[in-house]
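Holo prediction — 5-O-phosphono-beta-D-ribofuranosylamine.
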Amino acid sequence: CNVVVLISGSGSNLQALIDSQSDSNPARIGAVISNRADAYGLQRAQAAGIPTQVLSHREFADREAFDAALMAAIDAFQPDLVVLAGFMRILTPGFVRHYQGRLLNIHPSLLPRHKGLDTHNRAVAAGDAEHGCSVHFVTEELDGGPVAIQAAIPIRPDESVAQLTDRVHVEEHRIYPLAVRWFAEGRLRLGEQGAMLDGEKL
Ligand code: GRF
C-alpha cells in the first residue's frame, strides 16, 4: 500500500508512521509533500530515504489552483492512501472528492468535540473530563468525516495545557500508524454508512 504523507510542520506523526514501517506492515511511505519548505518533517523523511517535495501555496493565485497542483503532485506518486499529518491547509471539495475513501487525517480532539484549531486550550477551558485525538476519513465537512479510531485520556486537574498536549501527542503517535496499517491491510475502509473495520461499522 503506497502512502503519500502531507505535512506542514514538525512531522512527529510522520515520524511515528516511518517508525511503524516493517516487513510485516503493508503500508509503505512513497513520498512526503510539504507546503512549507522549512517543515522539519522534510528532514525526517530525507533521513529515512523517502522522496520529498515542496509545493508552496503562496505560489498559487487561489485555493483551487494550489489544490489542482497538489493533486497532480500527489498523483504522480500513484498513492493508494493519502495521509494528512499536520497539513495546515483547508482542502477544496474537489480535492476531497478526488481522494474519497483514501484520505485520512488526525485531529487532536475527541471528535465531534472541538473541531478546528486550538483544541487543547479549548478542551481545558470547557472543563472537559477527558480529551484525546481522532483519526478520520476526510470528507467535505471540516474535521467532520467518519472516525476510524480515537484515543481518550483523562484531563488531570493539575496539568498544564502543554503537558496535556504532549500526552495527546503520545496517543496520536500510537493510533495513526495503527489506522494506516489497518487501511493497508484492507481492514479499514469508508463504506456508505461510515468507517468500517473488518466489515463492521465503527
Ligand atoms: C498534530 O497535533 C495533529 O493532530 C494536528 O497537527 C499536529 C501535527 O503535529 N493535525 P506533527 O507535525 O505531526 O508533529
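READOUT: Residues 107-202 form a domain with the Rossmann fold fold (CATH 3.40.50.170).
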